Amino acid sequence: MNDDAGTRRPAPQPPPMSPCVRVCVMDAARRYCTGCRRTLEEIANWWSLSDAGKRAVLADLPARRPTAN
User: Fold this and answer.
1) Could you list the residue range(s) of the whole structural domain that residue 32 is in?
2) Which among 8, 11, 39, 48 has most CB atoms closer than 10 A?
3) Does the pLDDT at position 33 exceed 70?
4) pLDDT average, residue stretch 29-57
5) Which residues face 25 on adjacent strands?
6) Looking at the domain assignment, is residue 59 inside a domain?
């Protein structure tokens, strides 16, 4: 997509999808869902978060994977 000056703008990104995998079990020790790894607050607020807020939550999820013992 080009603007009036002829420079190329990136295509808009679609809204982030929920990471929910329908395995809704809260890990009491870690305080997040074992399925999607979001906290209760993140789950409750997901639909009211901005796209940037959703992307920030999604970026944090890989660090919440359980570590092997």
Assistant:
1) 26-64
2) 39
3) yes
4) 96
5) none
6) yes
Look at residues 8, 64, 69, 55 and name the one whose alpha carbon lies nearest to residue 36: 64
CA–CA gap between residue 28 and residue 41 (Å, rounded): 14
Q: How far apart are CA 34 and CA 53, in angstroms?
A: 21
Q: Are 33 and 18 in contact (CB under 8 A)?
A: no
**In which region does residue 40 sit, left (phi positive, over 0), alpha (psi from -120 to 50) or beta (all else)?**
alpha
Sign of CA dihedral 32, 35, 37, 41: negative
13 in a structural domain: no
Predicted structure pTM score: 0.77
- 20 inside domain: no
Q: Is the pLDDT at 5 greater than 70, yes or no? A: no
- How far apart CA 42 and CA 56 sit, in angstroms, is 11
Does a structural domain hold residue 16? no
